[in-house]
Structure formats: C-alpha cells, structure tokens
Design brief:
The complex is a heterodimer of chains A (306) and B (320). In chain A, 72% of the residues lie in helices and 0% in strands. Chain A is mainly alpha-helical and 306 residues long. Chain A has two domains: 30-78, no CATH class; 82-300, MetI-like (MetI-like fold), CATH 1.10.3720. In chain A, helix 5 runs parallel beside helix 8 (168-193). Chain A is globular, with a radius of gyration of 25 Å. Chain B has a single domain (78-319), classed as MetI-like fold. Chain B is built from 14 helices and two strands. Chain B is 68% helix and 1% strand. In chain B, strands 1-2 form a two-stranded antiparallel ribbon. With 320 residues, chain B is mainly alpha-helical. In chain B, helix 5 packs across helix 8 (181-205) and helix 8 (181-205) crosses helix 10 (223-251). Chain B has helices spanning 23-29, 31-58, 78-85, 87-118, 125-137, 140-150, 157-164, 181-205, 210-218, 223-251, 255-260, 272-282, 286-312, 315-319; strands at residues 61-62, 73-74. The chains are: A mainly alpha (306), B mainly alpha (320). Chains A and B meet through helix 1, helix 2, helix 5, helix 6 and helix 7 of A and helix 1, helix 2, helix 4, helix 5 and helix 6 of B.
C-alpha cells in the first residue's frame, strides 16, 4: 500500500533519530487531550446509564417501578423478578427457561456447522486458483449486503415447502449462512498469513494434502476459528426477524421473540422485562468479555490492511 | 519457487507458464479443489441464490393471500408502478434517508472521537473499550425494550430527568409524538452501533506510523494538522469500509423501529424494511413486498459494488 504522505514528511522521519523523550512530556496537557477525555466521559455515561437503569429497574417491585418521580434507587431491593424467571416450577420461569434453551441449542448448532463448512471453503479460497474463484468469492461477500427481509419471503415459502416451518432446523439452516461470508473472509485472511512452505514441508515428509491441512494449517488458524465462532454465536443468539417469522408455537421460540411475547403478555411488568433482558444479555456479554480480542479481530479483519 | 512439491498444481500458482487453457480442462484439472468449497456453495445456493431468484420472480406477480403460489397472476410491472407512484413510498423513503444518514453520521463521528481518545495508553483503557462495546454485542430486542422503558411516557427516566432539571414542565411523550419519535429511535440506533465504528477506526489507527506523527511534530505541525494531514489519510480506507457497512446496516435495520414503535405514530418511524415486513407478513401481499425488496436490492447492489471495491483494494493486486 502506498502512503499518501508527502515525501518530505517521510524523509524527515528517516533522518530524525527516534527521539528519546517520551511523547507526553513535551507539552503541557493540551485542550485536545481534555476534549478526548470529555468525549470518553460522555460516551461512557451514554453507554452505561441505560444499562444501569435496566439493572436498577429489574431490582424493583412492579409497584415501585410505576412511580413518578421514579425511585432512583429502589426503596427495597428485590430479586424476586430473577427468581421468578429462573425457577422451572412456575409458569413464567418454565417458559423463559425453555426459550433460553432453544436459543442456546440453535445458536450452538449453527455455529458449529458454520465453522465446519467455512474452514475448508476459506482454505480453498486462500490456496487454490480455480476457475470462477474470484466470482464465487464476491458472491460470498455480497451476502453481507442484502437485507434479511429480502430473503424472508422466499425462505419462508421454501421452509414451508420443505416442511421446516416451526422447526429449529429452519433457523439453523438460515443462521448458518449469516456467519458464512464473514467466517470465510476472516479465515481466508488467516490462511493467507500461514506460509505455504509449512505445508510443503509436510508434503515432502509424506503427508497427504488433507493431512497437511488438518495437522498443520488447522491448529495454526485456531484463533481465526475461535473468532468466527464467537461472531456466529452472537449473531445467532441475537437474531430476531427469522425467528419471528419461522416459529409460531410457544415451546419453540428463541429468546428475542420470547422476550417480545413476554412483553405482550405481561405488558406492565417492566421490572420482569428488564430482568429478562438482563439474563438474555449475560451469555453474549460474558462470551464477548472473555474472548474480546478474538471478537474485535473478527470485526476488523479484512477492513484494515497495513 | 524452484521446489515444486505440490505437483497437483494447486498450491503454487504458475499462471504464466501456460496462458489460459480452455475452461473445461481447467475445471476438470481443479475438480479436487471444488470439493473444499462445495458445502459452502450448496448452502449458499439454497439459502441465498434461490431466494434472490424467487424474489425477483414474485415481484411480477399478484399473489393470493393464502400463499398458494400456483394461483399467482402475472401482472408485469404493476407492482413496481404502484409502489413508486404512491405517496407512502415517498414518506417512507424520506424517513429511511433521515434514519440512515443521521445514524451513520453520528455513529461515525462518535466512533472516531472515541477511537482517537482511546488510542493512547492509560489506566482502565481496556475496561473502557469493553464497556463501550457492550451495546453493540447485546441483542437489539433487549436494547429496544430497555430504551422503550427509558422513554416511557409516564414513568420513563428520561422524561423524569428532563423535568427534574427544568428542561420541560412535564414528561415528554417521546415515542408517541410524530416529531420526536424518529429522532428518539435514531439515538437508540447510535447507542447501539457507534462502538462498531470505534473498533474499526481503532484498528485503523494502528496502521498510522508513529514516526510520521513524530516527524510532523518536529516539522512544527500542531495537533489538528497532524490529525488532518497524517492520521486521516491513513484512515481513509477503513473509514470507507466502516461508513459503507454502517449505511448498509442502517438501511437494513428492522428491530429497533419494529419493537419500539412498529413504524408509528402515523408512519413517522416507518422505514423501508418495516414497510416491506408489514406488507409481506401483515397484509400478506408477497408480490408487492417482493417488488419493494427488489427496489431496495438495486440500491444495495450499487452500494455493494463500492463495498467490494473498498474491501478488496490491495487484494486484487496481490492475487493476480
């Protein structure tokens, strides 16, 4: 990549020896840095306050939530909303846990299948030069561009025809393709960076192409596989439109649709809804926090080239 | 490239030796390679290729409300004509444009500000970055309900706060007012996606060479000049991709308007996607909705062209 910087600047860069002084001591803390802090403080409040209010509300009783002016901190903190959602014995909890399990099951299966399909495809895109490769690759990328709704009607009719409406199979098949373009793109980036000589060495030692791929390339690309898997899981966990359209019986619903149902059934129970939103967010937020660097990589890979 | 162990030919590309043998021969020679992508291709064709074809086909038909597609009636371009000449199309397009442009602009600007501010070592930087990313990770449905509660006309905390600080005399009914509904939703959208721009640009900032910044400083450039003449040119590529992805995401957004207002009040928050969904699954007019989708589709294709171009600069040069 050519640098759009003027030559003079580059020349100076090479002639000046790296200054021993640290960057920060040069000037007093300027207005710009305060502006930066201001922006961060503002964004932190903007980001966190709604979530804080969600948690505070979830700790209130229904009566306490419906007060004006609001109780900034609940007069009496109650965990009743959480207990109700998580105990399988009462009706609400039974329903909620069913949604939770459905979401988990659909997300995990579509993630695993997605990785299994994406790995060989990405490897092929990275290593082989076969006719139509470029065109196929673009068609893979283009999937990112199309709105879910465009696919909704034909897929709905197709699922109806296949007898998959109101099954989790329809969702798994659909979510699979969500992840695929990005997974392939991301993994291809990883494979591009693995030197081909490694495989060649293995081939000299008598490994077949598949063995070389399985024993040499696969382990080296595991960060990429983790990154794509997290991304696919989070996407599937949060997906709403297809689940809304494909599923109709109560025991099949996934969490996002279940949440909506919960809202329409117990319309005024805001604390309960906030507690449900909180529980629903926990798995993805934990997953994201633990594997943050992979997730960030999944997002930025491909767009940023040095 | 003297050691050519990969005698099957795939591993080391040698296109210069023989210029384009005929297509069939090349396909046969590479049949092995296709095995690797076959599963992906099959799934893609089934779930992507076929639906695109079918949407285009349906857009020329009037479909019966019972969805028995054998009874559909060919109507030519009538669906398109009906949509493009309707008043509601103009209103919805206007909303869509406002929604997309304003959301993208603020998400990008806030993301850029955050990225620049986070691009130096300080205590708690990692934690801060993680917290800012949480809205992007959580479910849009959950986020919509949380914000719906914040905006609640009687017990919403935003209304209560604005009364507390004396901005208004009584809580504003944010989501039921045709003037405040769309801006309120845009705020939620920005809340949800600005950190995506942040993380992309933060990665982009890693590619700005430190020496250049220092050299510019030595040459007497002030902070703004360094940002504008050194940092920004390096962020051009990432910015292109980020903005395009934001535009596409915003044109495709459905959940926030659907959950929070359902397109109301009086269509004030109706955008293309909610309109299409309503048409297809509310009024069961698949033909009409398909034509609407195709129109959206064409807009997307134009954007997609730029997207692929922005994404693959450099890659092209590398592979050929």
């Amino acid at each position: 990549m050519s640098t759009p910087i003027r030559n003079t600047a580059a020349m100076t860069a090479t002639t000046t020896s790296p200054a021993p002084t640290r960057r920060r001591s040069k000037k007093p803390i300027g207005g710009w840095r305060w502006a930066g802090r201001g922006i961060l403080a503002f964004l932190l409040l903007f980001t966190a306050l709604p979530m804080v209010w969600m948690v505070i509300t979830s700790l209130k009783t229904q009566l306490a939530a419906l007060q004006y002016p609001p109780q900034w901190w609940p007069n009496e903190v109650t965990f009743e909303n959480y207990v109700q959602l998580l105990s399988p014995n009462n009706a609400v909890g039974h329903e909620f846990l069913q949604y939770f399990w459905n979401s988990f099951y659909v997300s995990i299966l579509s993630t695993i299948l997605g990785v299994v399909i994406a790995v060989p495809a990405a490897y092929a895109f990275s290593r082989f030069r076969f006719p139509g490769r470029q065109a196929l690759f673009f068609s893979v990328l283009l999937r990112n561009m199309f709105p879910a709704v465009v696919f909704l009607m034909p897929l709905f009719l197709m699922m109806k025809w296949l007898g998959l409406v109101n099954t989790h199979g329809s969702l798994i098949l659909t979510y699979l393709t969500f992840g695929l373009p990005l997974s392939i793109w991301l993994l291809k980036g990883f494979y591009d960076n693995i030197p081909i000589q490694l495989e060649q060495a293995a081939r000299i030692d008598g490994a077949t192409r598949f063995q070389a791929f399985f024993h040499i390339v696969m382990p080296l690309s595991s960060p990429g596989i983790i990154a794509t898997a997290i991304y696919a899981f989070i996407m599937a966990w949060n997906e709403y439109v297809y689940a809304l359209t494909f599923l109709n019986s109560k025991d099949k619903l996934t969490l996002p649709v279940g949440l909506q149902r919960f809202f329409s059934e117990y319309a005024t129970n805001w604390p309960g809804l906030m507690a449900a939103s909180f529980i629903m967010s926990v798995p993805v937020v934990v997953l994201f926090l633990v594997l943050q660097k992979y997730f960030v990589r999944a997002l930025t890979e491909g767009a940023v080239k040095s | 490239m003297t050691i050519d162990v990969a005698h099957q030919g795939g591993a080391v590309p040698a296109p210069s030796l023989r210029r384009r043998p005929n297509l069939l021969r090349r396909i046969v020679r590479h049949w092995n390679d296709y095995a690797y992508i076959a599963p992906a291709i099959v799934v893609m064709l089934l779930v992507i290729g076929y639906p695109i074809y079918y949407t285009v086909e349906l857009s020329f038909f009037k479909t019966p409300p019972n969805l028995a597609m054998s009874q559909k009636v060919f109507v030519g371009f009538d669906n398109y004509r009906a949509i493009l000449t309707s008043q509601s199309f103009r209103d919805v397009t206007y909303n869509t444009l406002i929604w997309t442009v304003v959301s993208t602009f603020f998400a990008y600007v806030l993301g850029l500000g955050a990225a620049l501010a986070l691009n130096r070592e300080f205590l708690g930087r990692g934690v801060l970055r993680a917290v800012l990313l949480v809205p992007y990770v959580i479910s849009a449905v959950a986020a919509s309900y949380v914000w719906k509660w914040l905006y609640h006309s009687d017990f919403g905390v935003i209304g209560a706060l604005s009364v507390q600080f004396g901005f208004t005399d009584e809580p504003i009914n944010f989501l039921d007012n045709i003037y405040t509904a769309l801006p309120s939703l845009i705020v939620v959208n920005i809340w949800k996606e600005f950190s995506f721009a942040m993380i992309m640009l933060l990665a982009g900032l890693q590619t700005v060479p430190d020496q250049l910044l220092r050299a510019a400083q030595v040459d007497g450039a002030n902070t703004w000049q360094r940002f504008w003449h050194v940092t920004m040119p390096h962020l051009k590529g990432v910015s292109m991709v980020t903005i395009l992805l934001l535009v596409v995401t915003n044109l495709n957004s459905f959940i926030i308007p659907w959950i929070m207002t359902g397109g109301g009040p009086a269509g004030a928050t109706d955008i293309w996607i909610t309109q299409i969904y309503q048409m297809a699954f509310g009024r069961i007019r698949f033909g009409m909705a398909s034509a609407y989708s195709v129109i959206l589709f064409i807009v997307m294709m134009a954007l997609g062209y730029f997207y692929v171009k922005a994404l693959t600069r450099g890659d092209e040069a590398k592979s050929e």
